[in-house]
Amino acid sequence: MKKMWSFFQYLWRRLEIDDYFGVAAQLSYYFILSLFPLLIFLVSLFPYLPLTQADVLGLVRDFVPQESMKLIETNLSELSQKNSTILSFGLIGTIWSASNGINAIMKTLNHAYEVKEERSFLRARLTAVLLTLAMIVVIAVALLLPVFGKHIGLYLFSKLALSSQFLSVWSALRWLVSPLIIFIIFIGLYWLAPSKRFTCRSAIPGALFATIGWILTSYAFSYYVDQFGNYSAAYGSIGAIIVLMVWFYLSGVIIIIGGEINAFYSLKNKNC
Fold it and tell me: Where is it located (predicted)?
């Protein structure tokens, strides 16, 4: 109990002194800037992968508030129609812009771990680009798993003469794909984003908190917006953007707290 109390004291002190709620607001701004360049890149991949717009939207539909989801769907539809005009030369700039959010997370985690940025501007930015590409690959795998997972389940069912309950269990396991993918993404961010190199194991506590906290917060905020928060009445046509920014702000807070949790345990292990 005493250890838990000291942990909460440490966490609150860091959040208060370092103004991490203000930093989360900065993160939400960079997330907004990164969102649509990221969508452009995903749209450009559709011809090369067995994916559709519905697959991409289905991955995030449960987490994004409904008002903001309509905004994303509209823009993604427009981008899909203009896909033929997207040139390969523009993809480099698109990925560079999409990495703004990862670059902001890198700076935030450096602050959380109390380490200075020792990488050059170009190296740090290239790291952000590589992390963005890795995140896209992980997302693509998450989208492809349900497609191939169904065929794998049917193959095992026919070859091993399993009961019909196997297919039900196999289909239910697909619900675990999204949380697992989110957990892997957070581990990668907390492990590779800071300038100082830490062990992969040290990223697990914060990644676990961030995964559970982000999913629960997203569900709760989506429910609140859909049932009680009529942002369109207060902000008009930009209500969807305001909802998206608030959601990104809450996501930023979760990511920062996860980084602080890792920093706390890293410091504790260092002193032992």
Answer: Cell membrane
